Amino acid sequence: MNVYLEILIRSLGAFAGVIFITRLVGKSQVGGLNIADWVNGIVIGSIAASLATDLKTPAGIYAFALLVFLVLTVFSEWVGVKYRPVHKLLSDDPTVVVHNGVILEGNMHKMRYTVDDLTTQLRQKNAFNIADVEYAIAEPNGELSVLLKSQVAPVTPQDLHMPSKYKGVPSELVVDGVIIRQNLKQNNLEEDWLLGELQKQGIQSLKEVFYASLDQDGNLYVDKKQDKMSYKQDVTDKLPGKMPQ
């Protein structure tokens, strides 16, 4: 059999195999990537590595394999756009994992989606209490969409028919004890002003500051390297012991 025909056949089989295995792994392991991205990142990356390091095999062999996977990836994306059933096969469907504060264990088991996966992604969406969640939906790319119950959803100025003003990004003024002078200059501020504000908060040296930023209203936020806290919440399930630093 011609070597390039054999590579073509093997590539077709490998491409189909990767899609099949990825569907079996479940949403929680895809890490936010769709199937095409996963194929590109794992399989094509492996072929490229072999192309760079395997000096015994002609480079044209690996180059042809890369081309085949590139064509297959682009073709699968194109077909997925044109034909919805193919898109469903490649991308899967959204899955409800929480409904009205109740965890749907059956749906989670089908996806091999753990409680740790769920609680981690809920916290990333500022939902720290499952009882407050109306809907949590695991999307095909592994992301979690969360709708809070109306009773606990934040009230917006729009809800109250109130005008609101622009809220920009705070400017970093100190990072790990080092002044970001460019940001000071952009805010028309001097180093003496910054040091004076730090002294008002009982800070005598920049070495004490881990992070400091200035918001649009002129409020200075400061985080010290040595935080004096009487209690630190531990969100792990480790046995009681030394408090985390």
TrEMBL record:
Transmembrane in keyword set: yes
Listed InterPro entries: DUF421, UPF0702_alpha/beta_dom_sf
Record carries keyword Membrane: yes
Coiled-coil region: none
Gene3D superfamilies associated with the record: bsu07140 like domains
Subcellular location: Cell membrane
Keyword list, A-Z: Cell membrane, Membrane, Transmembrane, Transmembrane helix
Superkingdom in the source lineage: Bacteria
Domain YetF C-terminal: 82-214
Family: Belongs to the UPF0702 family.
Protein name according to UniProt: DUF421 domain-containing protein
Organism: Pelotomaculum isophthalicicum JI
Taxonomic placement: Bacteria, Bacillati, Bacillota, Clostridia, Eubacteriales
